[in-house]
Design goal:
Layout: H1 5-12, H2 17-29, E1 70-73, H3 92-98, E2 102-110, E3 113-118, E4 121-126, H4 127-140, E5 146-152, H5 160-171, H6 186-189, E6 193-198, E7 206-207, E8 212-214, H7 225-238, E9 248-251, H8 261-278, E10 289-292, H9 297-315
Parallel strand pairs: 1-2, 1-10, 2-5, 5-6, 6-7, 8-9, 9-10
Antiparallel strand pairs: 2-3, 3-4
Helix pairs in contact: 3-4, 4-5, 7-8
């Protein structure tokens, strides 16, 4: 291939890498809204429409956490890096205040520091910022609990576990954590950060892989959104009749070369919102954790309301 791409294409019928990259960008960007959007199912503005900071206070103390339906965010701290890297627009504080209770945090250990990444993209934060944010929130809202998947991402050192322990002691406190692989009750979980450990080393909490997880994240083109939604649908349908002692986790997020996280969320989130509304009047709906890109306050509330509705049914 020569450096003059249009000539190469015309003469050989093939596309050079530069043209391909340009086409990928244009096809992905074609579907993006130029301005911020705030819908009931999708929100890429900086601030939630309304907040739900203490919704777990209505859950009975003896309820196992595996029976709680809760909203979460995929790549919680991925606020920077352009359309391929960004999965959220709300700060950690805003997410927690809006009612998010599952955090998906990707941490890179490099030069003795734990910094937040999405793949190769630095997210302008370190793990201490996340720990402080969660500790401050739980200090103010002791009725709540926060589950945090900690995933090692692009690390260049070996003692990731030791660094995490050091950061917990430096930026939060050891007793903030739930120190068991067992699923706690709400009474045991209140005021605690429950680590879902997705890295090697001794136990810091529960193991991430102990959850029942659906994460079909590869959506190469927007034409595969239907397949992605089917995966989400199937797992949500399985959760109410599944093992009640096991936490179910369903990711509605997805991305690929021709499909940015925003574009996928703009299509999946409405399907999820409609699905939840259709289930509103059905009894005994335990969905577990529903983990989203760019969630909106109304879809978060719809997830929360399943838990509160179930409590009302059990008390009636």
């Amino acid at each position: 291939m020569c450096g003059r791409c249009h000539i190469c294409t015309e003469t050989s019928g093939k596309m050079c890498s530069q043209e391909f990259i340009t086409l990928v960008f244009l096809l992905g960007a074609l579907d993006l809204n130029l301005g911020a959007v705030q819908r009931p199912d999708y929100d890429d503005t900086p601030t939630p429409e309304f907040l739900n900071p203490s919704w777990m206070s209505a859950i009975p103390d003896d309820r196992p956490l595996s029976e709680v339906t809760m909203p979460g965010t995929h790549n919680t701290m991925a606020l920077y890096g352009g359309v391929y890297a960004e999965c959220q627009t709300w700060s950690l504080a805003n997410q927690l205040q809006a009612g998010i209770r599952f955090l998906d945090v990707r941490v890179r250990h490099v030069d003795g520091k734990l910094i937040i990444h999405h793949g190769v993209v630095y997210q302008q934060a370190h793990f201490g910022d996340v720990l402080r944010g969660v500790a401050d929130f739980l200090s103010n809202y002791s009725s709540e609990t926060v589950l945090m998947r900690i995933k090692e991402e692009q690390s260049e050192t070996r003692d990731f576990y030791g660094a995490v322990v050091e950061y917990v002691n430096r930026y939060a406190h050891w007793d903030l954590l739930w120190h068991s692989r067992l699923v706690p009750t709400m009474s045991q979980a209140r005021g605690k950060l429950i680590v879902l450990q997705d890295f090697q080393g001794p136990d810091l909490g529960m193991r991430y892989n102990s959850l029942q997880i659906a994460d079909s994240w590869k959506v190469t083109t927007l034409g595969q959104v239907t397949e992605k939604w089917q995966s989400v649908f199937d797992h949500l349908e399985a959760a109410p009749v599944g093992d009640m002692a096991q936490i179910f986790l369903t990711y509605s997020s997805g991305a690929g070369v021709f499909a940015f996280p925003r574009a996928v969320a703009q299509r999946i989130n409405p399907k999820l919102y409609d699905y939840l509304r259709e289930k509103t009047n059905l009894p005994n709906q335990r969905f577990g954790i529903i983990c989203m890109d760019f969630p909106a306050a109304p879809i978060i509330e719809s997830i929360i309301n399943f838990q509160l509705k179930n409590e009302g049914e059990k008390n009636s």
